[in-house]
Model the fold of this input.
Amino acid sequence: MTGKRVWVAGHRGMVGAAVVRRLAEENCVVLTAGRAEVDLRRQAATESWMAAQQPDAVIVAAATVGGIYANDTRPAEFLYDNLMIEANIIGAAHQLGVVKLLFLGSSCIYPRMAPQPITEDALLTGPLEPTNEWYAVAKIAGIKMCQAYRRQYGCDFISAQPTNLYGPGDNFSLSQSHVIPALMAKAHNAKIAGAKSLEVWGTGTPKREFLYVDDLADALVFLLKNYSGSVQLNVGTGVDISIADLARLVCSVVGFEGELVFDASKPDGTPRKLLDVSRLNTLGWRAETELADGLRTTYAWFCDHYREARL
Done:
């Protein structure tokens, strides 16, 4: 990557920021652009900016994201925004002759009841999880776009599908966040308020896999250097945990000692979602951060950025 111009689309998000941090270790030029400079949902604006900057490689981390509540209440936004962002970037990358593009998907692309652990071959073999199907459909379209441009034009466009992510820079808004930041913010507020109990959405029985965001950033740089293929590669730890046990671990890290109350009237989502990461492991990459360690680092960041994180 020496001397290459690498554009991180979505550099202000949790993933994009982690990728920028990781690329600082490489001898490359990192390109970034905020929404005020270019709205990636607009084709002309995206093409104009990319033509001016001439990136050699692109990491597509830009996306409209959120947890179960956000996905369920904003389906049109999740579908439209993500389709436009990926179509504009991938199409322009082909037109401008970008040498390498890495599209970032999500493990929610896989069927709700896919055999566990989920292999890459499970894509499009069954119905999606209804609570996030709009986001999943958009991400599947992005994967297929990369495959289509590779097949028709020989573009070296690849895709990576991370498991559930967490870490510094996450969205801790209770109406939009994923499970770890939501639990962390609720546990923190409950501790400060001296509450005796904490409500957790769902039954607590679903199991989830979690990857520290800086581990993902390292994996993406690894793939840019070492992978060129049409198959979307899973990125994860290969280990999962029940939501109930996760809630207990988060409370332990935060220091909240009250009772957990599970609200079974709220949706559980997919019963289990564990990725098979054997293909990536075979290439030579493995996640390094243990969940408890990553949670402690994330909580320290949350406390240091409390007002910002709450927004």
